[in-house]
């Protein structure tokens, strides 16, 4: 009996470290995520659309990939708009260069790079503030989508002018 008690006392003196890490623990790099299309491989577009719209029979991972898919679509739209803006700026820069004026394209490229850094940092900040949560990636992709949609509107305004 004394031996068993000594063993139990010894166990309570040893700190117990339980690793409670989950897929939602720690830092992550969104660039390492597989495309949402790969995640949904084998499902029809209508099935994916229905699941993403209703959330019916969807796991948290499914919903995160739905949010990821929305981000990829908006990112593609931004890419098309950026290419159009770049072409317009390059055309305009030709006349600026001929007049000896500063060129706009280097500033446009820098502003886009700075904007991407802002967007990523903002979404990581908001996501990490929520801590370890099952909705972490859903929240992250929704943030990325929202800020990217705003950028699409800004670039479209630039193109109008």
Automatic annotation (TrEMBL):
Keyword line: Signal
Record field: transmembrane: none
Domain of life the protein comes from: Bacteria
Domain Lysozyme inhibitor LprI-like N-terminal: 57-154
Signal peptide: 1-20
Pfam family, one: LprI
Gene3D superfamilies: 1.20.1270.180
Listed InterPro entries: LprI-like_N
Name of the molecule in the record: DUF1311 domain-containing protein
Organism whose genome encodes this protein: Paraburkholderia edwinii
